[in-house]
Amino acid sequence: MKPLSLPVSADVVAESWEIRIDKEADIIAVRQLVRELTKAHKFDQFATAALATAASELSRNVWVHAKSGQASVRVLRSERVGLELAFVDQGPGIANLELALAGGYSTANSLGLGLSGTRRLVDEFHIETKPGFGTTIVIRKWKRDF
Amino acid sequence: MELGIQPDYMKVLKLDDEECRRRLEFFELTDEDFQRLTSLRSFAERWTQEITEGLYELIMKHAESRSFFPDDATLTRVKRLQNAYFLHLFSGTYDLNYLRDGLRVGSAHERIGMPPKLYLGAYRRYLALIHEKLRNHFKGNEAEAVKAIETIRKIIFFDMALAIDTYIAAYLETMTRHQAAIRELSTPVIKVYDRILLLPIVGTVDTQRANQIMETVLVQVVEQQAKVIIIDIAGVPVVDTKVADHILQTTAAVRLLGAQTVLTGISASVARTVVQLGVELTQVDTRAKLSEGIELALSLVGKKISSKSKSGVENED
Amino acid sequence: MPSGTIPILKIGSTLLATIQIDLHDTVVDAFQNDVLEEIEKTAASGLIIDISALEAVDSYVARMLANTGKMAKLMGAETVIVGMRPAVAATLVRMGYFMSGIRTALSLQEGLEIQDNRSKDRNAE
Fold first, then answer.
1. Residues C56, A25: C-beta atoms closer than 8 Å
2. E strands of chain B, at which residues?
3. What's the half-sphere exposure (Cβ side, CA atoms, 13 Å) at A86?
4. Architecture of domain C8-124
5. Do B184 and A78 count as a contact with CB atoms less than 8 A apart?
6. Structure pTM?
7. Domains of chain B with CATH codes
8. Which of B257-271, B276-290, C68-82 is predicted with the least confidence, judged by mean pLDDT?
């Protein structure tokens, strides 16, 4: 499945990494990379926790449901600094996206993917999925400037 | 995301093709005007330098405006830009790119701090100089001169509108930044007793502020190892479902840490609204008055307020 | 002696487990095994899990903590989670995880107080 192309021009990307997700330990690798970057770019503790958690949740989804996939982590620089995480897999896809994204504050209806919860942790959340083909999720969080 | 213009005025001013068309229509700029402008291109090239000199004669004559052009290098560069600007008026295409260029000029002046009064006064002189040259150019053809002057007036006013928009957008941006700073300073968490904190919330609570309040509360509860935090909302003008949700989120987070919240300052109208809206505040201790909240908080940490015994002590009054 | 990488200490009739590493399946399995074995061996009536070293807690860890609490309870021990960081609490509620089934306390000291009071109540019965 072709990754989502999003409206961020290439000269806004300052740093870029790719991590394959094939085993459980890779989830930790992604989380640690995210943590290092948030520390290096001085995100506050809340943003750090939000990004590390989102990275964990989405990496784990890839490993649990698709068994294999790719995480891309990019540092963005325009008016502010931001972190972008992309998760691409060729797994089963999500049949009922609306249901997966719904769920208010109860996780009972969310198919256990934690997507609605993760969405509330970040500034931008983009998802493309096709049953039988795979899923691509891209999230972004910008550093607060006050 | 647009780099190079700070902030992105095109987005802030909502300048898309539709808005562009609306503006051109309101300023009554028609194809006839555009053709006239293109046909005057050589006129523009012939006179731009002299017109620019005339403009800067005014600017350099007055101390206030002169102060923005402190050295020859700046002056030369700016005159060059001014010439380019004049020619761009006669460029022939008046679309989003034209708008973007106009915004760049306006924002450049705003960024160096030139106040609108000087900017507009300069435009007035600019227009007068252009009129004079046009009258000479069309000598013997008064009707054509009048039409040309009218067309130029339209496009200059069109550009002035963009310039003023950039000034306003810039001021709004500054105000927003200041407001954000003020908000951060306005979440004062006070220690009222050992392990009891108090946060009086005053003013409107939007999502951004609510998030910032929750984070401040959580940090303080952990730092102070508070068993109870009293959150007083008497100073919040409107408590609707959204605000109530934000408050609930904070109390839930405080509970997760292992501490308790007491909500005070609940007015009669807030109590009515909250129940009518179906908001469940049952998991949180609430009181109408702050003093009641303080008493409750003390009891939760095993203390209470009692009157001093009067025996053997003179009354003060 | 616990075989996993999460140390478990005994303080009176309470067990204290301090989590300082990244959690994944094998670590979690070993941890839960160790906790239950220790409860059985020492007849502990309380378990305290210290998460003050964790900067972020995702749903997997939240579930793990809740499940460990349930398992301990089945074996007669009440669990208290201590040391949750502000950013962890904020992230959990923002995601919608309120962990309502488990008791929390700000510090180890407070957690021990709670366990003490519990066993006092229990002895009084």
1. no
2. 190-193, 196-202, 228-235, 260-264, 285-286
3. 17
4. 2-Layer Sandwich (3.30)
5. no
6. 0.69
7. 9-183 (1.10.490.10), 190-300 (3.30.750.24)
8. B276-290
